[in-house]
Write a structure and sequence with these properties.
The structure holds two protein chains of two kinds.
Chain A lengths: L3 E4 L2 E4 L5 E7 L5 E7 L5 E8 L2 E5 L6 E7 L2 E6 L8 E8 L8 E2 L3 E5 L1
Parallel strand pairs in A: 2-11
Antiparallel strand pairs in A: 1-3, 3-8, 4-5, 4-9, 5-6, 7-8, 9-10, 9-11
Chain B lengths: L2 E3 L3 E5 L4 E8 L6 E6 L6 E6 L3 E5 L2 E6 L4 E6 L8 E9 L4 E4 L3 E6 L1
Parallel strand pairs in B: 2-11
Antiparallel strand pairs in B: 1-3, 3-8, 4-5, 4-9, 6-7, 7-8, 9-10, 9-11
Classes of the chains: A mainly beta, B mainly beta.
Chain lengths: ~110, ~110
């Protein structure tokens, strides 16, 4: 199936731990994104990569480090997890033009205890 | 600054028509998207407007007025499965930065 897939779907961990979320798209898109959706359902952009290069880096703590080994993959590593990091993290991809819709993965629900 | 406003919640009756409004103030405008998001699922693309006017797609239509910074999503012949959140999003500035509103939660009742 052509899609944006991210793993894991659920992630429960303790404060202070380090965790990673993986994302892959087989749509042939050049641009990939990470969005965070908080408890109020507000979807906020974190990072965007175009062809493995970082092009958007919003005001995100440097505990969050994205890595794009190739244009089909964009992983998110989070160090020293905090309670406030609990949210749903969505990966997305697009062709890259202004009229190109974003295609979202199914999300990773991160719970920090 | 960047600001996208939509009503928090709306209710409607099955078979009816509902209009969800969105107003935006962004630094730059390169198009407006509407997405649907069912609870616990990913947002899915509904419509795109970059020029003023109405875009129709089956039961869903979206309207844009750039001079007023205003858009609406019109849902006709409502079905129970249309109960979801509807997200207004604006492409602002360069580098395909898509900024989302907080979403409107629509409940469709029999």
């Amino acid at each position: 199936d052509t899609a944006v897939s991210q793993t894991p779907k659920y992630l429960v961990t303790q404060m202070g731990n380090d965790k990673s979320i993986k994302c892959e798209q087989n749509l042939g898109h050049d641009t990939m994104y990470w969005y965070k959706q908080d408890s109020k359902k507000f979807l906020k952009i974190m990072f965007s990569y175009n062809n493995k290069e970082l092009i958007i880096n919003e005001t995100v703590p440097n505990r969050f480090s994205p890595k794009s080994p190739d244009k089909a993959h964009l992983n998110l590593h989070i160090n020293s997890l905090e309670l406030g990091d609990s949210a749903v993290y969505f990966c997305a991809s697009s062709q890259g033009g202004n009229n190109s819709p974003l295609h979202f993965g199914n999300g990773t629900r991160l719970t920090v205890t | 600054g960047q600001n996208i406003d939509q009503p928090t919640e709306m209710t409607a009756t099955e078979g009816a028509i509902v209009q969800i409004n969105c107003t935006y103030q962004t630094s730059g405008f390169n198009g407006l998207f509407w997405y649907q998001q069912h609870a616990g699922e990913a947002p899915t693309f509904l419509s795109y407007n970059v020029l003023d006017g109405l875009e129709e797609k089956g039961r869903f239509s979206s309207f844009l007025s750039r001079s007023k910074g205003y858009s609406y999503l019109l849902l006709k012949e409502l079905q129970m499965k249309d109960s979801a959140s509807y997200l207004c999003a604006v492409f602002s500035g360069g580098y395909n930065k898509l900024i989302f509103g907080a979403g409107t939660r629509l409940a469709v009742h029999p």
